[in-house]
Amino acid sequence: MTRVAVLYGGISAERDVSLSSGGQVITALKDAGFDVAPVQVTRDLKALVTALTEPRPDVVFNALHGRYGEDGCIQGILEWLELPYTHSGVRASALAMDKAAAKAAFVAAGLPVAKGRVIGLDALAADDPLPLPYVIKPVNEGSSVGVHILRGGDNRRSEIARGWRFGSSAIVEEFVPGRELTVGVMGDRPLAVTDITALQGGGFYDYEAKYADGGSRHVIPAAVHPDIYDRALHVARAAHDALGCRGATRADFRYDDTAGEPGRLVLLEVNTQPGLTPTSLLPEQAAHHGIGFPALCRWMVEQASCGD
User: Fold this and answer.
1) Of 1, 70, 75, 185, which has the fewest CB atoms closer than 10 Å, so is most exposed?
2) pLDDT digits over 225-251, tens only?
3) Domains held by the chain: number
4) What's the pTM?
């Protein structure tokens, strides 16, 4: 019987999300017939290495989210230990987590992105870097952690800069009005387009809207213009490839249909560790194609590899 170690928890701002994902995965893999070894990850690196070597699993299921879990760090440790693991490798994980670097890769691939740039906090505190409305977000975080939307009349810019805890710089981008869309990718297969409506967080698909029960409404397939639907599928697969991802990913978009359809589709980011919680989007899209959660997790284990 294949022994699968499930890494979950971690030390990032997304620890609670990872605990939820990991709990779901552990149950699903047991249902799928695997010998499962849960490993809650903390700051104790020696304990982690011991858990992965005594005894040694056949595969590691990476259910970590955020820093150290999806930025190439844990992937490097697993490769050092020569253990096959799920999801993307070191290079793709690090590239996707660095929003500025990922955006450069998307631009090089000819994919549609929002206008913006990386800016220092002093410059942000001094003046508006872009015409309002615009978005401020960390260079290296996920799950909308630290994201702010500044609209007309909003005077929080200096306060945000002073309280910033995500490094010495931030990304500022034009705010793209309209709808939130997402596309899951399994290997070389884009699954579906989901239209997301945030019911909490003031209409913004923030951390609470993503993970709270009833925080958002998901419509699969999204009721958008057929050309936009096909374009979103194509761009999601192209973005997956541009970063060198493997396994499952999820591409997030803004779709500006405020002037009518077909509108403007903008790629925001690619998530190399899509959430696997009860409210997560990738499992919903897999289920839309008749792939139950245990089967999805089994597929991820089967796709595990040691290296990019």
Assistant:
1) 1
2) 999 999 999 999 999 999 999 999 999
3) 3
4) 0.90
